[in-house]
Amino acid sequence: xxxxxxxxxxxxxxxxxxxxxxxxxxxxxxxxxxxxxxxxxxxxxxxxxxxxxxxxxxxxxxxxxxxxxxxxxxxxxxxxxxxxxxxxxxxxxxxxxxxxxxxxxxxxxxxxxxxxxxxxxxxxxxxxxxxxxxxxxxxxxxxxxxxxxxxxxxxxxxxxxxxxxxxxxxxxxxxxxxxxxxxxxxxxxxxxxxxxxxxxxxxxxxxxxxxxxxxxxxxxxxxxxxxxxxxxxxxxxxxxxxxxxxxxxxxxxxxxxx
Length: 258
Hints:
41% of the residues are buried. A hairpin with a 3-residue loop joins strand 5 and strand 6. By secondary structure, this protein is of the alpha+beta class.
């Protein structure tokens, strides 16, 4: 798996007026269980570079994990967000969950300058620690707001978290500013989609369902990129063995007209 990089994704990302956004749940950079588990963070670094996105929204990103750092000889010396950022990108990370051996959360990688960032806890109960990461970037001189989300496993929690997301947007994002909300929504029904449409967030809907989970044999779309103030142009999901070995999710890549 270390011998070859994932094949490059088509479509140039830096075309004037085009914003490419990718979202990817990286499963903490490790695949498998127990003694059979394998470190995939190095391959994920190659994969993120091949996505060639202006903004990469990541979930299940480890800041530190002392147990895994001792287990794997090639565990990176820097945080996973820093390690995964291609040359020239800035990495913003905030912790959602604190565990016995470390912490993990959401990250945003961007090739455009960062204006500011903030984090909000959206945990709905004590058994799931969740958060959203809000980053403002300057894309071709224009402020664009991006929010990385990872919603809960319980349907009722997701509904309440989307309501909290709406309150956050009303409070923190100017109504006329381009907005991207991307991540792992843990939902394959229509209720969340309808709720987001209710406050102006839409995704590309002109192609067949972009299934992202489970990566080996994708049957549902848990990962989405919604926008407000941008025109959706395309949506694609990289496929193949080299991709499904790295995480239990496949990445999702969307393009928008600024």
